[in-house]
Amino acid sequence: MEENMKNIDKTIDNIMKAVMALAMLSLVVGGFWQIFSRWILKDPSTFTEEFMRYMLIWSSMIGSAYCFYSDKHLALDLFKKKATGKKEKVLNIFIEAMILFFIIYVFIYGGARQAFNSTNTSPVMHIPFKVLYMILPISGIFIVLARFLKYYQNYTIMRDVRKEKN
Questions:
Q1: What domain count does the chain have?
Q2: CA 25 and chain centroid, separation
Q3: Which of 72, 126, 134, 135 has the greatest number of beta carbons closer than 10 A?
């Protein structure tokens, strides 16, 4: 079971890294093409600004999911540092529950509703906004998977510590 979880962990890590790398590469290529077409060809590209805006949104959302995955996300730990013992455990459970509620409700549920109900297309590239909005549920799913993997890892660590004590 633990070996399967490690494989899932590594697969998710590789997928998110690949998507982030592709998004960042597309931003570099798009920026290069915009500069090249404007200054060398003297005919600025019409689609690159819109394309780069969408790719920036996608790379930001996947990047934020990866930050949650690698536990490097921004956290306000004002109360967390002051809590100890049982209060700390209760606070951690409350924080994790609120994170999951927010991600599931806003990113997954809200993002999916927004994506599926969208009927507009982008003005220059004529891409349906559904494509742009789908990053919300996708990144939400990555965040939820990351949290559950973290919970499982914490569970196995605590289980192993209990076994060592006995």
A1: 1
A2: 18
A3: 135
